[in-house]
Write a structure and sequence with these properties.
This protein folds into two domains: 34 residues, no CATH class; 72 residues, no CATH class. The protein has six helices and no strands. The chain has 123 residues and is an all-alpha fold. It is elongated and about 95 Å long.
């Protein structure tokens, strides 16, 4: 079969296809509504950046304190100034290996964020 034969066979007993009565009007109304919608408000990164930086600073400081206490020992002179509940919590965290858990979690988070950024994924 040639293309002309196929075209003739498809046109043979087919009526002209027309859209329903309100289709064009509803589509044009949707297009106008979409065109009139203002663009989304961008996220205010300049305002959020100090808070994010402060949170990172607090997390790094806490990690440094935990690592330093683990290195020098929980019962050192630096730990004597801390409340006994905090010293006990640090002992439990040290026994559970919380430092390695935090390092592994941060490494996983950073690697996933880096991969998403390189791949161009939007979050």
């Amino acid at each position: 079969m040639r293309d002309e034969d196929i075209a003739r066979a498809l046109k043979a007993d087919v009526e002209e296809i027309l859209p329903s009565s309100g289709f064009v009007a509803s589509v044009m109304e949707a297009v106008r509504l979409d065109a009139a919608t203002p663009p989304p408000i961008p996220f205010p990164w300049t305002r959020a950046l100090p808070g994010v930086a402060a949170a990172v600073l607090v997390l790094v400081s806490a990690f440094v304190v935990v690592v330093q206490l683990a290195r020098t020992g929980i019962h050192s002179s630096a730990a004597a100034a801390l409340p006994p509940q905090l010293v006990r919590a640090l002992e439990i965290a040290n026994d559970a290996g919380l430092g390695w858990i935090v390092v592994a979690s941060l490494l996983a988070f950073v690697s996933v964020r880096f991969a998403m950024r390189v791949a161009g994924a939007r979050t």
